[in-house]
Write a structure and sequence with these properties.
Layout: E1 2-4, H1 9-16, H2 28-35, E2 40-47, E3 53-63, E4 74-78, E5 83-84, H3 89-105, E6 108-113, E7 118-121, E8 130-131, H4 133-144, E9 148-149, E10 158-163, H5 168-174, H6 177-188, E11 191-195, H7 201-215, H8 222-234, E12 238-245, E13 248-258, E14 261-269, H9 278-292, E15 297-299, H10 314-321, E16 326-330, E17 334-337, H11 340-370
Parallel strand pairs: 4-6, 14-15
Antiparallel strand pairs: 1-2, 2-3, 3-4, 3-5, 6-17, 7-8, 7-16, 9-17, 10-15, 10-16, 11-12, 12-13, 13-14
Helix pairs in contact: 2-8, 6-9, 7-11
Length: 371
């Protein structure tokens, strides 16, 4: 395993772009963003005998200053990583072993991995559902090696993916009839979609904050999104699309693109003109533009953990399901406790801290909106 000293995106992104599972959250740009918010990024690579890179991982390290855990301890996280051929058992064992040793050297309480590795497709219990043998094998390997499914799932475990390798007519025909109807309805009702730029970042945040307060979910402060969007927009790895009705912004999406994939990371809307179905038009334009940009997959970023009406994401899933995609169930985040007693304390305290942050974050967001 090597630790690369990466200063520019052209030094890291080409290393990972062709690896299995290459993801926007493993890019140099994500490392830059997180380095401004208390994380130290490490760029790790593994090579075969001829010297070719066969695995890589952007690993984030955060020191914990709380006296309860010790000033020199920390936590480590590989967002949507590591990247490798998970069907290669020897390589899997090598990478996981090296990550464990590296985390110990850095005095981490635990290390969390979160590869974009499918363990199955379709909704469990339905006829078309099937397991992915490689993902299931890796899951069993982790369970037998001291890893545990994390109580803190940073990213969505399940998602809906649309295959963009069809022409537009075929994409539309794969959608549910109501979704096609709403896309066309939005156009008839004068909903237009334009590509945004840096000048729209304040508008995007205001709409996102409004959405968070209305729909009761936690978001970070404005500085965080300013940093994320400016970093990815400036390097051409993300694009905002803004829906308007007679020049009035009513909704937006922010689409990230890397390694032939597109992700619908952020969606936001105001309350006006919702009957004009602008969200449907936004998703369709995001797919069209991602296809034109050379992407083969559009990841709608999020589906329920449990596919029933009691899941908080059920309504969102029903919307996404109309676009003709396939449910993909991934491995999820797994933790390897390296200091079991401290890890247990950390796991007990963290939910309380997060709940406090959610309450405070919602009130702070509301206050910023009011001002």
């Amino acid at each position: 395993m090597e630790i690369l000293d990466i200063k520019q995106p052209e030094q890291w992104n080409p290393v990972i772009v062709d690896l299995p599972g290459a993801h926007a959250l493993q890019t140099h740009q994500w490392a830059v963003v997180k380095s401004h918010f208390g994380w130290t990024p490490y760029h790790l690579v593994w090579r075969d005998d001829p010297g070719e890179v066969v695995a890589a991982a952007l690993v984030l390290h955060r020191r914990i200053t709380n006296v309860l855990f010790g000033a020199r301890l920390g936590v480590m996280y590989a967002p949507r990583g590591p990247l490798l051929d998970w069907s290669d058992s020897d390589l899997v064992s090598r990478v996981l072993h090296d990550l464990q040793n590296f985390a110990r050297q850095q005095r981490a309480i635990f290390i969390k991995i979160d590869p974009d590795l499918p363990i199955g497709y379709g909704i469990p219990g339905e006829e078309e559902a099937e397991d992915d043998p490689t993902g299931q094998k890796v899951k069993n390997h982790l369970q037998s090696s001291g890893w545990r499914l994390s109580d803190e799932q940073i990213q969505f475990r399940n998602t809906v993916e649309v295959d963009l390798r069809q022409d537009e007519d075929d994409l539309l025909m794969r959608m549910k009839s109501k979704t096609r109807y709403n896309i066309r309805l939005a156009k008839r009702r004068n909903v237009t979609v334009r590509a945004g730029d840096m000048d729209d970042i304040d508008l995007l945040y205001q709409m996102y904050a409004h959405t968070a307060v209305r729909d009761d979910f936690l978001i970070r402060n404005e500085a965080y999104y300013q940093r994320v969007w400016r970093t990815f927009f400036s390097d051409g790895l993300a694009e905002p699309l803004i829906a308007e009705v007679v020049g009035q912004p009513v909704g937006a999406v922010v689409i990230f693109r890397f390694a032939g994939r597109a992700w619908y990371f952020y969606g936001m809307s105001l309350d006006e003109h919702r009957e004009k179905m602008f969200n449907y038009r936004l998703q369709w334009e995001a797919m069209r533009r991602s296809k034109s940009a050379g992407c083969h997959t559009y990841d709608m970023w999020g589906a329920p953990d449990a596919f029933d009406e009691d899941d908080p994401l059920w309504g969102v899933y029903r919307f996404k399901d109309g676009f003709g995609g396939n449910v993909v169930r991934t491995l999820g985040a797994w933790d390897l406790p390296l200091r079991p007693f401290i890890f247990k304390m950390y796991s007990q305290i963290l939910p309380r801290v997060l709940n406090w942050m959610r309450r405070r974050g919602k009130s702070d967001t509301q206050r910023r909106l009011n001002t």
